């Protein structure tokens, strides 16, 4: 009872979840920047630029894993095309970054180099407005959102489920990859967008900018985590799990599963779009390879390894698999895909609830 | 939105306007099927099936396997569209034009043959999800459970004897308890018409007896249609029995009459 009279901030700190958020914010926005920018190189505590860039990538991947978990872990709909929404968000952000290059390209033209190469004189109509930051940021969520909504409307209305749905999403991302590979599509063909110079007029390749994008990714991830927590703890979240477990009972209880699936599916796609938009300025490139089917399958593996239906699990899964990937591809690159396959088999056979399920089991045994 | 004005009991005769989209059972009939035909790949699951259920009635439907009992339930709840014929809820609601959630919101609850509850949710959450309320996304996201809703959940919990299992995951319940939870979920929907597909399958004798008691108390407040194989159970609850055979009504009447019907004996005993 006494907790009621404590000030709001103290009460928040008493709650372990809020403490977790607070520690994460301090870690991402103060500790890492200081260790990277202030602590001199060569010191034991120095965090290298390489670590920061991998960390930033992992934060973006973690957002995608979270989005995937909402639709797969909680709603039971396995998408094997989430890489597409991530890439589309990335491309929308990339369009703005290409505009920011201005006349500093190889050909010193107002147009991006690949358009000069195609002998185009003006921007195509669908580039309209992308020089404005806010328009581009709107596209980052609107393009994946609208595509997901339209696709989901037809798929869910036709009651396409299970493996059939997964295969169609896989085909969708593959079709988009082929479409983006064409030079005439107007998104740089197989080279995509790269050689970014500025963001909001500020040079992009400085340590400060890198640190800013890293911290921004961290905060965005925490915001998404909090939002997802609110969703799964609400009755809306319980309806989603109910759809996963017994959809016919949900219908005969008076809920329209179409609306619920469509809402979470569209939200999930928009989260991926945001992740893609934060990813592109950090890695400095976006190309159609991001839409490859293998990428989307890898997203599913992150979630399976981390633990479906828990919010923290997929974040750990994304970090673990991405960490392993950068180590493997540096040490024995040719074995990475074998390892990934093995990981998926082991997770499916022995860890149906992923790392989080294992942790729960161990905790149960110890106590 | 489909409102659920249940005018049946208050109607005092005389004329009134028929409002489309509003349930009107003032003529004493809550469910009305006429000449319903459903075929799957040339096989007629239902063949010009006609029958009606009165307000407050408890009706049992029996029939050998493949008689079309489950298909009939599918037609009433919107899962299967009839090839021809009409199916009305009250006088005004054409069920063949409504979706499953719309039919559920209009006031028809259905229990499946195999108990279907949300196994990962607690017993309380199962009832909360079934509870009659705004079932749209916005309300689910931001709505809070009201005090009286909590009370009515507890009332149902004691009716179905699961008060001690309030916070147990539904997947951990016994088969009979799951059957009861599903019946409780139907009650939480406050339906006018309950469709129960084999409600006592897999129950112990004692549980069966208690279920019969429960259904007897519910009849009158709700209209109930029960599909069942267990003849003793049917005898203990039924006032009127409909026998289905090859997709149409073979006989109808009280238990005694039906049991002595020549055609029924022939179908059941294969003479």
Describe the structure.
The complex is a heterodimer of chains A (367) and B (271). Chain A is built from 15 helices and 4 strands. Chain A has 367 residues and is an all-alpha fold. Chain A has 2 domains: 1-47, no CATH class; 63-302, no CATH class. In chain A, a hairpin with a 2-residue loop joins strand 2 (198-199) and strand 3. The longest helix of chain A is centred in the middle third of the chain and has 27 residues, at 207-233. The mean pLDDT of chain A is 89. Chain B has a domain at 56-77 and 106-269: Rossmann fold (3-Layer(aba) Sandwich). Chain B is globular and about 55 Å long. The longest helix of chain B has 14 residues, at 175-188. The interface between A and B is medium-sized, with 23 and 30 residues.
How do the helices and strands line up, and which of them pair or pack?
The complex is a heterodimer of chains A (367) and B (271).
Chain A: H1 8-14, H2 16-38, H3 49-74, H4 82-101, H5 113-117, H6 133-157, H7 162-181, E1 193-194, E2 198-199, E3 202-203, H8 207-233, H9 235-245, H10 247-252, H11 257-283, E4 285-286, H12 293-306, H13 312-331, H14 336-350, H15 354-366
Antiparallel strand pairs in A: 1-4, 2-3
Helix pairs in contact in A: 2-8, 3-8, 3-11, 3-12, 3-13, 4-6, 4-11, 6-11, 8-9, 8-11, 9-11, 12-13, 12-14
Chain B: E1 29-40, E2 43-54, E3 58-62, H1 69-77, E4 84-89, E5 93-94, H2 100-106, E6 108-111, H3 123-130, H4 137-142, H5 147-159, H6 175-188, E7 193-197, H7 205-218, E8 223-227, H8 231-237, E9 240-245, E10 248-253, H9 255-259, H10 262-269
Parallel strand pairs in B: 3-8, 3-9, 6-7, 7-8
Antiparallel strand pairs in B: 1-2, 1-4, 4-5, 9-10
Helix pairs in contact in B: 3-6, 5-6
């Amino acid at each position: 009872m006494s907790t009621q009279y404590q000030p709001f901030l103290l009460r928040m700190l008493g709650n372990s979840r809020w403490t977790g958020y607070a520690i994460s914010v301090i870690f991402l926005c103060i500790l890492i920047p200081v260790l990277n920018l202030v602590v001199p190189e060569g010191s034991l505590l120095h965090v290298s630029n390489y670590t920061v860039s991998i960390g930033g990538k992992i934060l973006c991947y973690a957002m995608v894993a979270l989005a995937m978990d909402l639709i797969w872990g909680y709603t039971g709909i396995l998408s094997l095309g989430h890489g597409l929404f991530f890439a589309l968000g990335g491309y929308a952000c990339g369009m703005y970054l290409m505009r920011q290059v201005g006349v500093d390209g190889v050909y010193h033209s107002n147009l991006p180099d690949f358009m000069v190469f195609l002998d185009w004189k003006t921007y195509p109509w669908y580039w309209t407005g992308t020089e404005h930051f806010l328009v581009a940021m709107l596209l980052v969520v609107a393009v994946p959102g609208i595509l997901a909504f339209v696709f989901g409307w037809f798929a869910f209305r036709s009651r396409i489920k299970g493996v059939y749905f997964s295969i169609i999403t896989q085909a969708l991302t593959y079709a988009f990859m082929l479409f983006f590979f064409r030079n005439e599509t107007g998104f740089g063909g197989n080279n995509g967008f790269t050689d970014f110079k500025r963001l909001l007029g500020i040079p992009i390749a400085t340590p400060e900018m890198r640190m800013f994008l890293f911290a921004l990714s961290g905060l965005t991830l925490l915001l998404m985590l909090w939002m997802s927590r609110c969703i799964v703890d609400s009755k809306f979240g319980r309806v989603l799990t109910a759809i996963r477990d017994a959809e016919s009972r949900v219908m005969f209880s008076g809920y329209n599963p179409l609306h619920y699936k469509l809402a979470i599916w569209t939200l999930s796609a928009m989260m991926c779009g945001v992740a893609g938009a934060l990813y592109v300025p950090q890695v400095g490139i976006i190309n159609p390879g991001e839409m490859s089917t293998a990428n989307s399958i890898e997203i599913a593996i992150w979630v399976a390894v981390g633990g479906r239906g828990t919010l923290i699990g997929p974040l750990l899964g994304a970090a673990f698999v991405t960490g392993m990937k950068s180590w493997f591809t540096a040490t024995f690159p040719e074995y990475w895909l074998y390892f990934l396959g093995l990981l998926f088999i082991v997770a499916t056979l022995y860890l149906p609830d992923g790392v989080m399920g294992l942790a729960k089991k161990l905790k149960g045994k110890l106590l | 939105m489909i409102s659920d004005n249940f005018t049946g009991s208050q109607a005092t005769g005389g004329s009134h306007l028929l409002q489309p989209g509003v349930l009107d059972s003032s003529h004493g009939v809550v469910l009305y099927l006429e000449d319903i035909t459903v075929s799957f790949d040339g096989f007629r699951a239902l063949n010009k099936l006609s029958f009606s259920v009165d307000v407050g009635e408890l009706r049992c439907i029996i029939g050998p396997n493949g008689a079309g009992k489950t298909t009939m339930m599918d037609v009433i709840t919107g899962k299967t569209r009839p090839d021809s014929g009409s199916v009305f809820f009250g006088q005004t609601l054409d069920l063949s034009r409504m979706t499953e959630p719309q039919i559920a919101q209009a006031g028809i609850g259905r229990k499946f043959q195999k108990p279907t509850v949300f196994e990962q949710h607690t017993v309380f959450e199962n009832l909360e999800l079934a509870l009659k309320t705004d079932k749209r996304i916005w309300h689910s996201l931001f709505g809070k459970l009201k005090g009286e809703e909590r009370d009515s959940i507890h009332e149902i919990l004691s009716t179905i004897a699961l008060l001690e299992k309030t916070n147990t995951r539904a997947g951990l319940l016994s088969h009979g308890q799951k059957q009861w939870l599903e019946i409780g979920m139907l009650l939480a929907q406050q339906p006018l018409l309950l469709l129960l597909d084999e409600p006592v399958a897999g129950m112990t004798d004692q549980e069966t007896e208690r279920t019969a008691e429960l259904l007897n108390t519910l009849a009158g407040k709700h209209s109930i249609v029960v599909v069942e194989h267990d003849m003793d159970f049917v005898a203990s609850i039924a006032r009127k029995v409909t026998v289905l055979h090859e997709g149409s009504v073979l006989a109808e009447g009280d238990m005694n009459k039906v049991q002595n019907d020549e055609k029924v004996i022939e179908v059941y005993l294969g003479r």
